[in-house]
Every structure is written in structure tokens, then in C-alpha cells.
Amino acid sequence: MDALNLLFENNREWAEKIAQEQPGFFEQLSKQQNPEYLWIGCSDSRVPANEIVNLPPGEVFVHRNIANVVVHTDLNCLSVIQYAVDVLKVKHIIVCGHYGCGGVTAAMEPDSHGLIDNWLRHIRDIYRFHISELDAIEDPAKRKDRLCELNVIEQVANVCNTTMVSNAWKAGQELTVHGWIYRLEDGLLQDLDVTSIASGKL
């Protein structure tokens, strides 16, 4: 319980600090949500969306799961995308992976990991799609890094092919999909140059 009490104490300190630095911030925040960005990222505790891009609460709508996967049968993820696109009218969807991703690492291992194997199947399929390129990389660390990148690229394509994004583009809605990756060792983002606008094609 001491650890949980610490969280409440931290929350009070944070709220007091924000209230002092920006009077009226919480009152204004409670009345509207108007972010321009949807962030689809990994659940990894070391990859917090707002902090990475140094934006305050209310500026980024966030969905996170193991290895930032977008699956067309995942109603949770699809509902987030629909709300972001149809209701919030975000202008940018950012799929952000990270090097050293535990989900990608697990997907590359031959051992069973239990229930999560069903989720990791999607990443294993990506490896299969790019097996010639990946198997040609002799350094295991570099091979894993490349799979992290390819995973982001595939998820960007999946986002572009959702009915919500496709319909938004058909309607002329301003919306761009991006693929980024984050390096834990230096805290820096990298654009993977798979930005997609209107056509939905990479």
C-alpha cells in the first residue's frame, strides 16, 4: 500500500504544480478534448507518448498495446481510430514503435509464451513476409532492430487500410498517417519515411 500511497502523493504534487504554473488549466481541460494527433504505440512503460513529444495532457489521443500492432479484428484499436478520425477529427495518426521492443523480441523466439503467442503471430507473419531480408542480417541485434522497423511499416499500412481512414480520405478529410520509431538509449524519434496522405498507399 505504501507504493500506492506514493502515487496519490505524486498526483497531488503534480496537480498543485500545474495549477500554480497554469491557473485554470484543469478547468479548461475538463471542458474539451481537441487533439490533432492519434498516437498508436507500444504498451512498454518506457515509451510514454506525451512525454516523448513534450506535449501536455489533451494534446495527444493515445492507443497502446503490445508491440503497437493494428489488427483488423481488434475492435479496441479500431474503435479508438474511429473516434479519433470521425469525432475528434485528428489530423495525424502516428504509429510509433521502439527499438528493443519486448513483443518483437518474443516473436523472434522459438519458445511458447502462452496466450500472447496469438498476438505475436502478427509479428511473426511480418518476419515471414520479409524473411529474405531479415535472414540476411547476420547481427541478431540489427536483425531485431530491422523487424521493429518493419513492424511499424506494416502497421502504418494496416491503419491506412482501415475503413475509417479510407472513408475519411474519400470524403476529403485532412488526415496523414506516419510511421516513427523511438530509441530508448537516447530518447530520440526517427521518421521511417512511410508517411501516407489521402491515397492510403505506401
SSE topology sketch:
Blueprint: H1 2-21, H2 25-31, E1 37-42, H3 49-52, E2 60-65, H4 75-87, E3 92-98, H5 102-107, H6 116-129, H7 131-135, H8 140-160, H9 163-170, E4 176-183, E5 188-191, E6 196-197
- Total strand segments: 6
Shape: globular
Overall pLDDT confidence: 94
Largest sheet: 6 strands, mixed
Q: What are the secondary-structure elements, in order, as H or E? A: HHEHEHEHHHHHEEE
Structural class: alpha/beta
In terms of DSSP E residues, the strand content is 15-25%
Oligomer: single chain
Description:
28% of the residues are buried. The protein contains nine helices and six strands. With 202 residues, the protein is α/β, with parallel strands linked by helices. The protein has helices spanning 2-21, 25-31, 49-52, 75-87, 102-107, 116-129, 131-135, 140-160, 163-170, and strands at 37-42, 60-65, 92-98, 176-183, 188-191, 196-197. The chain is globular, with a radius of gyration of 19 Å. β1 (37-42), α3 (49-52) and β2 (60-65) form a beta-alpha-beta unit.
Record keyword descriptors for this entry.
six-stranded mixed sheet, 9 helices, alpha/beta, about 200 residues
State the gist of this model.
This protein has helices at residues 2-21, 25-31, 49-52, 75-87, 102-107, 116-129, 131-135, 140-160, 163-170, and strands spanning 37-42, 60-65, 92-98, 176-183, 188-191, 196-197. The chain is α/β, with parallel strands linked by helices and 202 residues long. Strands 1, 2, 3, 4, 5 and 6 form a six-stranded mixed β-sheet that branches.
